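Hey, resending since the last one bounced:
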Amino acid sequence: MPDSEVKAIAAWTWRARLENRIFRGRDSAVSLNRLALDALRQWHNEADAIALFVLLQDMHGHTPGKRFALDFRAMRDAGLTSLSIPRLRAARRTLEAVGLVRLVGNYRAGSVHQTFTLARLRVPSGDGAGFVHIREPG
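The structure tokens again:
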């Protein structure tokens, strides 16, 4: 590894330390894309969708491509949300419609919940048609 690369990594690390951006478990920041929030604000259930999006970013956003189940009853039992299951389902459908959550595994009765992954929005298309979504592989 060249000295210039080592120096660049050290400079980035020191800058992150000075800006208090070093990961420390639960004492760390969660990143939210403002374009995603803008896209959600256009829906009738924006508050529920944003709440679910923030929760999913908190739990899974640090691992791109991570697959996770959405077991709303378990989420409520764990105290992660107080939204009703119908409101959580509607929020999930909104996240899917906007392109922030993508179904990657189907439900099997009695054994497997639907599996999802977080997706990212690209910049607005500029043609008035709305947002262009990045298509994740798979």
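The beta strands are 68-69, 101-105, 115-118, 121-124, 131-133.

Sorry for the duplicate.
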